[in-house]
Amino acid sequence: MDTRNLKHILKNCPQPYILMLIGPPLSGKDTVLKELNLDAVMISRDQILLDVSETDDYNLAFNTVNQKEVDKRLNSLLIDTGKSDKNAIINMTHMVRKRRMYNLNFFPNHTKIAIVFPILSDEEYKRRNEKRLIEEKKSIPDHVIKRMISQFQDIRHEEGFDKIITL
Predict the structure, then answer these.
(1) pLDDT per position as a tens digit, 84-97
(2) Residue 54 in 3-state DSSP?
(3) Cα gap 163→149, rounded to integer Å
């Protein structure tokens, strides 16, 4: 599915919506978001991590920031946005059912849409990881990506999604 079709689906779904991105690191979540250019509240633990650390170096931030402070700000943003009538996007990996259901619970009055990103080849993850390190000062160890992929649980409507879109 290309982003034009995805944008059309989102334009025609009941508002407000919560768009949950589901996929391992480097699967294309940020790229699709840039192409969609949606008017929505962005909820990204990675961005909160960078904001708390006051640096644009993700690897440095991850290793030095107080993770509890990051989680506290993330939960606050989920609570506040869930109470609003604004469209929102949760840009996290959401590889396991428990995390997806936990985050969806903050949005009782939103249309719940999952966008599921594909699992790629090891070579493609390596290529994207090298590119990201140069462009964003962010890299993810291969073993972390492999562990996350191994933990992936298929998405089900019973989790609370109104629509599941697989790319």
Answers:
(1) 999 999 999 999 99
(2) coil
(3) 22
